[in-house]
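Input record (one chain):
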Amino acid sequence: MAATRAYLDYNASAPLLEEARSAVVAALGAANPSSVHAEGRAARRLVEDARRDVAALVNAKAAHVVFTSGATEAAATLLTPDWRMGRGAVRMSRLYV
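The corresponding structure, as predicted from the sequence alone:
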């Protein structure tokens, strides 16, 4: 019987589906999405398309989808008091982590 390896270290990463890996590699070739030149605007379109796709998956508005660098930044963003962020009260009916 051949030994089968089970990946159990999902703490900081997880194996990618090939489709996801291909999309990431393609996006890495894009320019800075905050730049105003043509390449930057194309990269911004990739980000905004992804934002709309994620919003559709969770039945949310694209404007309510915020990308962060990881779980720590996401938690800090979510848990920062609204008054510190210059926002009024925010109500959440669901939390996606």
